[in-house]
Amino acid sequence: MALSGLQIFKLLPKTNCKDCGFPTCMAFAMQLASGKAELSQCPHVTAEAAAELGEAAAPPVRKVIIGAGDMAVVLGEETVLYRHEKRFEHPPGIAILVDDTVDDAEFQVRLDTFKAQEFERVGQMLRAKLFAIESADAGRLAARVKKASDETGAGIIVMSDDAEALKAAAGPIKDKKPLLYAATAATFDAVSAVAKELGVPFVIKAATLEELSELGDKCVAGDFKEVVLDPMSANLQDAIRDQTYIRRAAIKKKFRALGFPTIAFPCRMTDEPLLKTVFAGVFVTKYAGLIVLDTLDPAQVMPLLILAQNIYTDPQRPMQMDQGIYPINEPGPDSPLLITTNFSLTYFTLAGEVEASKVPTWLLVMDTEGQSVLTSWAAGKFVADAIAVFVKKSGVDEKISHKKIVIPGYVAQISGELEEELGDWEVVVGVREAADVPRYLRGLGA
């Protein structure tokens, strides 16, 4: 039974020392109760209190780390069912499957492709960070695991039914936190012993949620914290049901046996490549921590990474650009001046079209707390008096020889008021859609 914030507070030192990172013990207790903090953050809690707190001391979905350094993938720590309630914490890790159907030549191709494959979107670099390597041959498994780890730095999911094969393959790279796949009811003791010896996470899998819960109970009883669940769903319908049930049990019921991140294999649910991508997209939203693909085709990988980026962006803290003056296409004093907000998607969409136009342009980016043009206008942030103050203080007049500024077409209604606020500036109403910007900019020089 989960404890309330007040119940937890009664067990804390009540010194308000702030060593936990929160201003008061009550604030820390409330964060513990909601699963947003861990008891280990308090260095002064007594052993008796720690034992009594028990269930409330960890987030509903345990944290698991696979890999190391820049390629580390963090799973879990989720506290809500729906993104609008707060936010989703960690986007799912994308793993590329290599099994015995992949020969050595193709394996090398996948390694080389993996190293080079990276996508930039709204200022962030996106990529798959994991390999899932499976083989019935223990020697081949160990060799491929080491090769993939050494050449790519990727996190590795080591897949075998044999606990000794898992140990032999994962042992040499244990410092890079590989994930062992997988423990069943029959192999739990052997696989969990290997995971404990190496200090690495492992997967438990079962054909039913009841059996999976029983294995989860064993993990809780054995104090295994870094565990991943595989419900072995037979099809997409079962997968949505299973993933939703697991998340609800963890979040709503505080059911520790299912309070771990999950893994999904859309690559094994269909032979149709596009359907694999569709299925994987479902798992991004409902609620897989790891998604295993059998391809590095950018047409399949990139959409999933972008979807995850969108879903896992904090809705209360949109991605933002720094306020300032951005030169595009090497502008000079006579180049046109455009203004927009600092919402990242707005900036990168507009900047991309300006760059494509080949017209040297100054782009003035105003801080509107990451809101888009219309949203910030409606919120009173991208309005005439605020824009005028920003333009005058920006220093842009030192870079241009004219006093003409182009505003987005969607806020044409502020043009007259903005001219009054700016005084000797000319305000020009630009286009409404970014796609029309290249034609518009070329027309300015006609």
Descriptive report:
This protein has 446 residues and is α/β, with parallel strands linked by helices. It folds into three domains: 20-57, no CATH class; 64-311, Dihydropteroate synthase-like (TIM Barrel); 324-444, Rossmann fold, CATH 3.40.50.11600. It has helices at residues 5-11, 25-33, 47-53, 104-116, 138-152, 163-170, 188-198, 209-221, 236-251, 273-285, 298-311, 344-357, 373-378, 384-394, 415-422, 437-444; strands spanning 64-66, 73-75, 93-98, 119-121, 124-126, 130-134, 155-159, 179-183, 202-205, 227-230, 263-264, 290-293, 324-328, 337-341, 361-366, 404-407, 426-429. Strands 10-9-8-7-6-3-12-11 form an eight-stranded parallel β-sheet, with helices on one face. Strands 13-15-14 form a three-stranded mixed β-sheet, with helices on both faces. Helix 14 packs across helix 15 (415-422). The longest helix has 16 residues, at 236-251. The chain is globular. The mean pLDDT is 93.
Please outline what is shown here:
By secondary structure, the protein is of the alpha/beta class. The chain has 16 helices and 17 strands.
